[in-house]
User: What shape does this take?
Amino acid sequence: MSTTRQIRAWLVFFIVALVLSGVTAFPLETELRFLSTVVRADWSPLPQLLPGVVEWVDRVRDGLIATNDQYPFIAYAADWLAFAHLAIAVAFIGPLRDPVRNIWIIQFGMIACVGIIPLALIAGSVRGIPLGWQLIDMSFGVIGIIPLIIVYRLIRRLEYTDPYDFWDAEAENLLDIHLDIYSEVASVAEISALMGMEPDSSTERGSPRKNVMESAPEQAKIHRLTRWTIGSGLPNTAYEDDQLDALWARTSAALPRISSLTGGVRVQLCFFHQMDGRSFQGHGLGLSPQWMGLLAEVGGTVSMDQYISRNGPEPAKHPSVG
Assistant: This one.
C-alpha cells in the first residue's frame, strides 16, 4: 500500500471514530439505561467480579434520569460536546485531501490527545469521578494519539517532494494518465469491439488532422494511424496511484485481447504532467509489478511528458545556490 493510501486509511479510521464518539454523546440516557441492563443481566459476571463498576453505572444512570426529568436543559451541554466531536472530525478532512499542507491539523490532534490526561486527572478528581473511570477516559487520549503519530510520520515521509518548503498556495500540479492503442490497420470500432468499451477519445486512420498548415505535405494532413484512448475517469488533480488503479480496473481484463489484432498495433501507457514550478516538485514514475507484467504481455511501452507551467522559486532562495 502506498504512503498516500496508508495516510488516508488511518485518517478515515480516526474520522469515523470521532463521528461515532460525537453521535453517541446525544442519547446518553438511553445508552446508560441499556448499559445498566446489560451489566446486570443474568449472564453478566460483572456483579460478582466488579460490583463497583455496576454500582457506578447505576449511579450515573440515575443521575442522568433525575437531571433530565427536572433540569433537561443541562443535557444541552452534552449536545455541544457531541457537536464538538463532529466539528473536529470535519477538520480532519483537510489532511485527508492534502496531508502535507494540513499537517498542522495532525499536530493539533496530538496535542488534544495529550491534553486529555491532565483534564481527566484534574477535572475527574474535582467532579468525584472514580480513578478507574478516569483511567478509562485517559485511554481515549492514549489510543487516539497512536493513529495520529503514524499519520504524522507518513506525512513527513511525503515531504521529500517539497524539501525546502517552497510550496506556493496557488501552485497547481496536474497529472493525466491514459492508455493509447495505435493501429495501422484496425478501425476505432474494431478496437472498441475487442476491448468491449468505447474510448474517451479517438482518431480514425485517414481522417484529416486539425490545425495543419496549408503548406504542409499532403501526407502530413491526415492521420496515419488509428488512435484509441481511454483514461482513468478521475480528475487530473487525483493522485498517481489512484489514477493508475482506476485505469487498471477499466482496462486490465480487456487489454490482453489486443494481441489478437494484426498489422502494427502499439499500446502505450501515457503520463502527462503539468508541473507548477513554484511548488519545486519533480515527478517520478512508479509502476506496480501488475502493470509491468500487463505491458510486457501486450508489448506496451510507457511515455512520460512533463511541462513546467509557471516559473519556479528564485534561484537565490535555493540552498544549493550561493
